[in-house]
Each structure stands twice: as structure tokens, then as C-alpha cells.
Amino acid sequence: MIEITPLTITTSASVREALDRLNRTGEGVLLLVDDAGRLRRTITDGDLRRLLLAGSGLETGLSALPEQSAITAVEGIAPAEALGVMNDNGIDHLPMLDAQGRPSELLLRHELDSKILLSTPHLGEDELAFVKEAFTTNWIAPLGPNVDAFEEEMARTVGMAHAAAVSSGTAALHLALRLLGVGAGDEVYTSTLTFVASANPILYEGATPVFIDSEPASWNMSPSALETALRDGERRGRLPKAVIIVNLYGQSADIEPLLASCRRYGVAVVEDAAESLGATYRGRPSGSFGDLSALSFNGNKIITTSGGGMLVSNDRRLIEKARFLSTQARDPAPWYEHSETGFNYRMSNVLAGIGRGQLRVLGERVAARRAVFERYRSALSGIGALDWMPEAPYGTGTRWLSVCTLDPALAVGPEHLIASLARSGIEARRVWKPMHLQPLFAGCRYYRHDDAESFSDQAFARGACLPSGSNMTPQEQDRIIRALEHALRRAEHRAVASAR
Ligand SMILES: *Cc1c(COP(=O)(O)O)cnc(C)c1O
Q1: CA nearest to 287, candidates 477, 455, 93, 157
Q2: Which of 222, 345, 492, 493 could be 326's S-S partner, Cβ–Cβ 3.0 to 4.6 Å?
Q3: Region 404-414 average pLDDT
Q4: Burial of 125 by CB count in 10 Å (0-12 exposed, 13-18 middle, 19+ buried)?
Q5: Residue 214's beta-bridge partner residues?
Q6: Is there an atom of ligand 1 within 6 Å of 298 CB?
Q7: Residue 395 contacts residue 251 (beta carbons within 8 Å)
Q8: At what angle do helices 474-499 and 414-422 cross, to 10 degrees?
Q9: Probe ligand 1: pick from 296, 297, 401, 431, max atoms within 8 Å of CB?
């Protein structure tokens, strides 16, 4: 995405002016428009060269250029389609026209070819050494010294006494529910504003999810909505077997009041800290508060083992049981003896090696993600229609994802912003669609933070997640900021125009 105003030139301009403009803008193309701003054709160096060779002078007007039907795209073209049009026609630029035929954007091949993704793995310097060690010592099979060390190191980081490394965050959550005895007929409460992996394990166990709204200060589980739900559960004679508290987008939930409610009703707590590793709550690490807490090292998380997870707890018995269940629940016997359903959920020794290396750079990764967020916030502070997911005063988040919100007065929503960024080769995503709105969970109970409106519905309707990787270059961040400015200023402009 580039600002197209400096590239736009009218027929009254001269060849000299056009050459000067090409020279200063450096994109190799100008957009020739008529008095109404409609695109007549594109102009390249070659077009001007041919004009001069045919006998025109530097002061010749651009109306001397032959008519030419420019290759253009209609507004809202999909990036892959735009790239296809460029390939078919051997061009590197594609002007996008509005309904009146005026250029509104210029799509660039080099941007569509070098995509900036939402959140990509960022390796440090030690991962390979740990993996190599696993190879040279032939500890390729599951279990081994990296697994033991990764568990120990991660438990220390999260401030829990024990840890079991598993194949995914989802597996960790599933084991947590299994360990707490969740089964058919039980209810389990969880945040509605989350990734589906927080809720799926409830279904694995044949239990019924109940969803709790978020509160505006942190976008996490609302303590008042949880209290209402628990009171109602008690009245119905059906208190939940567990509450899964999710820490969203790198920020801890307001743990104290949530825990207090669960303790009062005697309900076990699972912390879904898949998105919040490295965050703190009142000075303590996120993930240290549940009876059991689940971590994820999926490829898009703040640190990764390509795929993996961990279950942490201060209860040694629970973690030992988790290791047992995650390795097919094999009873101690001289043959293969089984008296319980087990799972193949254990993390491999090779992947644990990646995890050990990643854990050493966790602090740097947190700082880098927070810096990306601060850069967006300060660079875009002039855009009134844009706001940000807040950081609650009780802790420090990681800004695992930088999440913005669009003013409802803006005519366009996040899907428009995301499509516009995509045309600049930038990946952005919607905020999680709340679980109570998912067809999978139709009919499940849902408790709002506010009787008048559902906060999570608002966050979904207005929010967008921006590229947040700790390995983005300053140039890539600038490109994102420029594309955001362009998309939002145009949207603001439209909002003002339609209000008139
Ligand atoms: C990523 C994620 C999970 C699941 O982790 P996996 O390792 O991908 O299975 C669970 N909960 C939340 C909130 C997540 O973001």
C-alpha cells in the first residue's frame, strides 16, 4: 500500500512534470486522471520515453499520450486475484478503482509477494543445540532429558511446583478436566471470548459448557458474571465441576475475585494460560493461579515448540497422574496392563529441546511484542476512530497479539480493515468469535457482564488482531502502520462524507 495522491497526475501536466514526479515517487508508475479524478491510464518511464522519441518535447502536455485502457481492479478485489491479474498481464502495479472509476489504492506486487503474518515462530540461538543433543545422545523417542529439564524450567518460570509436558495446549486442558473428574452430566464454566480450544475439552468429556462474558477493563472473564452464574448454578442445584479461566491475548484475567468466587462455592479452577505465558498478575506469573494451569507452545504462541503444551500445578499427585494418562495409562506390571483410558499426549524429547531454547528468550519476546504494540499505539494516536484493547492496572500483559478496536461510528467494521490490509500483503484477523455465538455451542447457557449488552459481542464486532510477531523488522512495522493509516483515514473520510 502506498499513498496514491503523489502518484496522481492530470492531463494538464507536462512530460517534464511527469518525469519529475516519477523520479520523486520512485514507484515506476503514475496514474493519469481526468478532471473528475477518473483514471484515464497509467504512465511509466517507457510511455514518456516513447513520446519524446516520437518528437514531443519536455513541455508537451500529457494529453498527447495515446489512449490506453489501463488494467485495473474493482474495489475489494481479493489479494490472490489481484496477484493473478498482475501475473496474467506482466505488471507489478494494479490500480483499484471505486464505483466512479477513481483510483483508490495501488496494489503492489512486491507487497503481495512478501506477506507479513499475524504471529510467526521466532527462534533463538540455543534451540538447535538442545535438539542436536537429543540426536547425538539418541534420545529421539518420547521422554528423555530435554522433557525433564523443560518441565522443571517451565515450572520455575510459571511459579508452580510441578509440570507435565504434553503434545498441545488442548491436550493439557483435556487432561486437566479428566484429572478433576469432569464427566457426562457435569457443567464446566469458561470464558466465552476465547479460542475454541478452551471449550472443546469440555465436550470431549461429555460435559456441558456454560459461558461467561468478559469485562471491559481486561476483556477477560467478568467476576460479576461468574458470581451470578455460580449463584444461579447453586440455585439450580448444579454447581460446575470446574471453571476454566482464560487469559486472553497475553493478559491475565482479574484472578483474585474470580478465585474468591470459585473458592466460596468449592469449585476447582483451571487456568487457560495458553496466550499469557510471560504475563503477570499482581506481581505473580500468569499460569500460577489455577489448581491446574495449561500452557501452549503452538506455532503462533509467544514461544513455540512447533506444537506442544504443558500442564502445571502445585499438586504433585495431579501432575504424576497427568504423565500417566498422557502415556496410555499403563499400569505398573511386567506386561502391558491397563485399567483406565489413557491418551498419547506426551511431548517428544526433540520438541522439548526447542522449548528449552525458546524459554531462554521468553523475556526478550515479551519485550519485543510490547514494543510492537507501543509502536502502533503511538504512530496511530492521531486516528480518533481507533482504540486498543486495554491493559488492566493489576498486571503486565505480553501483548501476545496487538488488538485494536474500531469506533462504532465508523461506517466500516474490522472485516473491511482486514481486507484492506490483505491487499497490502498484511495478515490481520478478527477477534475470537465468542463461544456462545458458535453453532457448536448453540443452546448453551451464557451469563453477561451487563444485562443491557454482551461485552464479548461488542469486542467481536469491533476488534481486529494486528501482526504482532517479535521478529518483525521496523520496515515491516512501518508498512503496517502506513496501510492502517490509509485504510482508516479513508474510512473516517467516508463516515464524515455520509454524515453530511
Ligand atoms: C492456542 C490456545 C489453546 C490451545 O493450544 P494448542 O497448543 O494449540 O492446542 C487453548 N486456549 C487458548 C486460549 C489458546 O489461544
Answers
A1: 157
A2: 345
A3: 92
A4: exposed
A5: 221
A6: yes
A7: yes
A8: 130
A9: 296
Place of cell 517451565: 154
- List all residues 6 or more positions away from 303 whose beta carbon is below 8 Å from its beta carbon: 277, 297, 355, 358, 359, 361, 362, 365
Cα(111)–Cα(107) distance, integer angstroms: 8
Residue in 173, 298, 347 to alter for ligand 1 test, most ligand atoms within 8 A of Cβ: 298
CA distance 490 to 107: 16
- The pTM of this model reads 0.92
For CATH 3.40.640.10, list the domain ranges present in the chain: 127-359
Terminal C-alpha separation, the chain? 28
Q: Does the CB atom of residue 198 touch ligand 1 within 6 A?
A: yes
Q: Which helix (H) or strand (E) holds 82?
A: helix 79-89
d(CA 495, CA 25) in angstroms, rounded, equals 29
Tell me: the pLDDT tens digits for 258-280?
A: 999 999 999 999 999 999 999 99
Q: Pick the closest to residue 304 from 153, 116, 122 (CA basis).
A: 122
pLDDT tens-digit map of 290-307: 999 999 999 999 999 999
Average pLDDT for the chain? 95
Residue matched to cell numbers 478478527: 430
Task: For residue 194, give the ligand 1 atom closest to its CA.
Answer: 13
pLDDT digits (tens, 9 = 90+) for 188-212: 999 999 999 999 999 999 999 999 9
User: Which of 171, 146, 182, 154 lies closest to 267 in space, CA to CA?
Assistant: 182
Which ligand 1 atom is at minimum distance from the Cα of 168?
Answer: 7
Q: Which segments of the chain belong to CATH 3.90.1150.10?
A: 362-499
Rounded to whole angstroms, the Cα distance separating 299 from 302 reads 8
Tell me the CATH number of domain 127-359, given options 3.40.630.10, 2.60.40.1930, 3.40.640.10, 3.40.50.20. Answer: 3.40.640.10
Write out the residue limits of the CATH 3.10.580.10 domain(s) in the chain: 5-112
* Cβ of 274 below 6 Å from ligand 1: yes
Architecture of domain 362-499: Alpha-Beta Complex (3.90)
Of 3.40.50.10330, 3.20.20.140, 3.10.580.10, 3.30.2380.10, which CATH number belongs to 5-112?
Answer: 3.10.580.10
Q: What angle do CA 93, 96, 101 make, to 5 degrees?
A: 130
